[in-house]
Amino acid sequence: ILVLMMATAFLGYVLPYGQMSLWG
């Protein structure tokens, strides 16, 4: 469960950042 929480937090942080970078 800890790993799942870490993975969710990681994706929640990286995906929006990647999208903002992609769209400028």
UniProtKB/TrEMBL annotation:
Descriptive protein name: Cytochrome b
Entry's Gene Ontology BP terms: respiratory electron transport chain
Keywords linked to the UniProt accession: Mitochondrion
GO molecular function, one term: oxidoreductase activity
Lineage: Eukaryota, Fungi, Dikarya, Ascomycota, Pezizomycotina
Alphabetized InterPro entries for the sequence: Cyt_b/b6_N, Cytb/b6-like_sf, Di-haem_cyt_TM
Domain Cytochrome b/b6 N-terminal region profile: 1-24
GO cellular component entries: membrane
